[in-house]
Design goal:
Elements (H helix, E strand, L loop, with lengths): L20 H12 L5 E4 L3 H10 L6 E5 L4 E11 L4 H20 L2 E13 L1 H9 L8
Parallel strand pairs: 3-4
Antiparallel strand pairs: 1-3, 2-3
């Protein structure tokens, strides 16, 4: 006679789920780049070499898991010229926090945004490079 199990009496799952900091960094990178006004993320030369060796595309993002199981994110941002820098940075913080917490269940303790550069774009760069003629304002 086969034994039957009632649906409500399942044994609890046992085991451990571990999410690598690199995965969290990837989520942060993708989420941040969805924010309007963010031109991109800027990594260091060392980040570039590490990305080449590992094949990963998370330059400019670092995730650090603390002992209390919360995560801290550091992003090095490039903001598009014309956007309010503080507003873009705040939107990046909110978006990254929302995506990481929603996808991983981890608590985000902080999202630090370091604005490293301003993307002035091609048209703006051409205007800056053009020499001014005397008498022109």
């Amino acid at each position: 006679m086969p034994t039957e199990r009632k649906a409500g009496k399942r044994a609890p799952w046992r085991g451990h789920v571990s999410i690598a900091e690199e995965v969290v960094s990837s989520i942060a990178s993708i989420a941040a780049q969805e924010v309007e006004g963010l031109s991109g993320l800027k990594g260091t030369v060392a980040d570039g070499f590490a990305a080449l060796l590992s094949g990963e595309k998370r330059r400019g993002v670092a995730a650090q898991l603390s002992e209390n199981q919360s995560i801290r994110i550091r992003l090095k941002a490039v903001i598009e010229y014309g956007y309010p820098i503080h507003e873009v940075a705040q939107k990046v913080q909110a978006k990254v926090k929302q995506e990481i917490e929603g996808m991983t269940g981890l608590r985000v303790s902080a999202v630090d945004v370091y604005v490293q550069e301003l993307d002035i774009g091609d048209k703006q760069a051409e205007r800056i490079k053009e020499p001014r003629v005397k008498g022109e304002s």
